[in-house]
Amino acid sequence: MVPTDYYVMLSAILFTIGVIGVLTRRNALVVFMSVELMLNSANLALVAFSRQWGHVDGQILTFFVITVAAAEVAVGLALLVGIFRTRRTTNVDEVNTMRG
Amino acid sequence: MELLYTLVPLIIVLPLLGALVNTFAIRDGRRAGFIASAAVLLAFVLALVATATLAGLPHEEQTRVDFMLWQWIQAGTLSVPFGFLFDPLSAVMVLLITGVGGLIHVFSIGYMAHDARPVRYFVYLNLFVSAMLILVLANNYLLLFLGWEGVGLCSYLLIGHNFERKEARYASMKAFVVNRIGDFGLMLAILALFYVFGTLNFGGIFPRAAELLAGQQVQWIFGPTLIASAISFCMLIGVTGKSAQIPLWVWLPDAMAGPTPASALIHAATMVTSGVYLIVRSHSIFLQSQSVSVLTVYIGTATAFVAASIAIGQYDIKRVLAFSTVSQLGFMVAAAGMGAYTAAMFHLLTHGVFKALLFLGAGSVIHGAHEVQDMRRMGGFRKAMPRTFWTYMVGTLALAGIAPFAGFWSKDEIIGAAFHGGRFGTFTIAGIFLIITAVLTAFYMGRQIFLVFWGEQRDHSYHPHESEPIMTVPLMILAIGAAVAGVINLPFFEGIGLAHILDHFLEPVFEVTGAVTEPPKFDLLLASITVILALGALFVAYRVYALRQWKKTFRDPLARVLGVFFEGFEQRWYADDVYDSVVIRPFKAIARFLSRVFDPRGIDGLVNGAARLIGLGGAGLREAQTGYVRSYALVFLIGVLAVIGYFGFMTVR
Amino acid sequence: MEFVLFLITAFITIGAAAAMVLSHNAVHSALWLVLNFFGVAVLYLLLNAPFLAMVQITVYAGAIMVLFLFVIMLLGSEKGEEVNGLPWQTPVALVLGLVLVSIAGYAILGADSPAIAAAPATDTQIGAAEAVANSLFSTYLLPFEITSVLLLVALIGAVVLTIKSREREGART
Questions:
Q1: What is the pairing mode between strands B78-85 and B66-75?
Q2: What's the rounded Cα separation, in Å, for the pair B222 and B456?
């Protein structure tokens, strides 16, 4: 049986990749995907702990996370479409009108 | 007694009403003058009735006409009523103010006939009378201060009446600023009084002053004498400001830039005597401090002597009288310092009459001589204006102290007090100087008379004429007063009840504070000496000035005899120059430094610097607001790292 | 055997994730992410969570990623990387990522916590659809219902956002 440590570590690595993706990619869609990746890594850790404690609650929470992620993607992508309609771009570095 | 409660406020309200009516309803100068005069003369009649009523009261009741119209200021333990005290001391002041003031109002109708702004003049004059009445009728120090400031304001306005003239503007400013220094002293005194006594009412302070200051109720590290000294010293500063004593006397001679009747009323007869009134009113505090009282004597004496010597060196007819006023005020202040309060009041009253007479006479001369004020350009007016001449003569004799005119009795009483001693012992040196001053007084008045009325006219560029009756009648009334005013306090005729009338009348005021003294005895030797010396001075003046025909720009023959001293007299002992270089120039330099260097560099620099610093900080922080969502995410991550770093290391260990 | 499977799946997921971040084409990224999701689904199976694994594939790999691909195609934004306002951020992000992994590794692997060191529970039935459904419709019934409301709100929101912008465009032309 694979120790829980390994799963959690894998989750951390995936999360870090997601973070780097958010920080370095300019395409808003890719940034979005990186966020999804981070959510996934968190889900993985939750499920790993669920098995560790022999308890289903972790999986229930993961279930909710997936649902919320779906909703978030729907709204987020709608926003992206809206932004694209006015700015003709999906590059986050071009949408910096809130500059001080 | 009930009558007084109505009469006293009415006396104050009448001139105030006159001022209001003239301000809003009257445009014609002559009509305004009649209204103003009527208001003040009516007030005088009421004052006569009030005084007679007061005199009819039982002895101990005479100081109890102390009533409140309304509560004026109520804050914490401070409670100041808008209330009046009508006692013998106030009564004589009210009589002087309204009586002499009324005559001066009447005189002004003629004098101001050709003025550009007569209505305004009469408004100020009426306003002054009410302020002065508030000053002398107040039953507490704060209301007194209201009047004190009110008369200062009116003085400022009247000095600057001819504001087209530069020297009038400067003189009004000078008077106001110098008076302000004195007012500050009085303000400090009032604050100290409230601190020590917990009240500002005369009735709450004076009867208890001695016991409070000496007793257990005020415990202080300084001791009661020093408190009394501090309070009375602050008051003395106020007195030197308002009554033009050394060192704050410089404003009064310049105040002559105002219209001559205003000078007569404010800068000779009434306002400048309010300092003397203040000392007499506060005598129970001054009595507690021997040191300040002695200081008061010497300030008064020095002022009297210095001002009299300066008067010798002046050519301007009004200026001579101005310095004479300063000198005579010195007499009063010295007397008040000696504790001879009745003598001070006596001289205040007689001086008020004859100095008003002299000023109005000088006004009549100036009016008749078409605004000429330089005595060197006059001469021989005896024939052109006989009525002015005779009345002026009476005033001169009264001021010179020739028996039996009014000034003789009062001045003699002061000199007598100096030699015979009062509460604080004898003041022989002060007395000698006062006699010298009296001689000088006689001399400069003789000089003036002989230069103006004797001889031939030296400048023929104008034709002097006698003034109209509306001006000469007040002169005559005042001349009668100047001749006989001495009867109010004759030192003899005890048998027929004519002796010491003023002494007896004022007695209740001093009874309250336990400060009654025996009326001074008449010193025939001293009186003879002063009269003989004064007559001699007049004779010398006659020899020097009356016998020769001068040119219209001559230099005083005394200049040859006295040399540098005469120059000093002419230049007022250089007091203005000293003040200019010691006070005004450094002050201006500091002001210039503050305005040109400190304010733009220091204050503005500080303010602008603070603003610029914040602006720079904002500009710096602005750079952080890139608008790039990714950089915000980076910052977010740094925060996350900090948090999980903390928990990671903490929990694992 | 199980361990080998874990290692292979782990490598695939990490590789797919890295490829998603690195690839220059957004469509490729999306496809790599789908692979990553499949790997995670396999890991769920290894963790005795078959129901979640199915949800992961249908909802994530199926619905969400299709939506992504659909938007990419709609906007034609396969590239969208031309402007780079923060060129210095890439190295900083890498360093910080390294720090993050280090902290996590120190906290996870360096820990002597008895809870994690202990053997995991062996109940293989907790992840079955029946067990999950039991819990979901009893203890977590209220959150479940609220989730449905959330989805409804998201649905309406997405519709409103797109319709409004279309109206504005219509008003402009």
A1: antiparallel
A2: 65
**Domain region containing C27:** 1-80
- Note the pLDDT tens digit of each residue in A16-71: 999 999 999 989 999 999 999 999 999 999 999 888 888 888 899 999 999 999 99
Cβ within 8 Å, pair B637-A19: yes
3 state DSSP class of C136: helix
Q: What is the pLDDT of residue B581?
A: 83
Q: What tokens does B588 get?
A: 């201006």
Number of B–C residue contacts, CB under 8 Å: 38
Picking from C86, C94, C100, C103 by the largest number of B CB atoms within 10 A of its own CB, the best residue to mutate is C103
- pLDDT above 50 (res B194): yes
**CB contact (8 A) between residue C86 and residue B628:** yes
Cα gap B24→B7, rounded to integer Å: 25
CATH code of the domain occupying A4-91: 1.10.287.3510
* Torsion over CA: B256, B183, B108, B30 (sign): positive
CA B276 to chain centre: 8
Q: Does A86 touch chain B (CB under 8 A)?
A: no
Is residue C114 in some structural domain? no
C1 lies in the same domain as C74: yes
Give backbone dihedrals phi and psi of B275, rounded to 5 degrees, phi first: -65, -45
CB C104 within 8 A of CB A9: yes
Alpha-carbon dihedral of residues B115, B120, B122, B128, nearest 10 degrees?
-130
Q: What are the tens digits of pLDDT across the range C4-47?
A: 999 999 999 999 999 999 998 999 999 999 999 999 999 999 98
The alpha carbon torsion through B187, B190, B196, B201 (nearest 10 deg) reads: -170
Domain ranges across chain A: 4-91
Eight-state DSSP code of residue B468: P
The pLDDT tens digits for B413-458 are 888 888 887 777 788 888 899 999 999 999 999 999 988 888 888 8
Which residues of A are less than 8 Å from C71 in CB distance?
29, 77, 80-81
Q: Give residue B298's pLDDT band: very low, low, confident or very high (50, 70, 90).
A: very high
Rounded to whole angstroms, how far apart are CA atoms B193 and B498? 39
Total number of domains in chain C: 2
Mean pLDDT for chain C? 85
The ipTM, to two decimals, is 0.91
Q: What spatial distance separates the first Cα and last Cα of chain C, rounded to whole Å?
A: 65
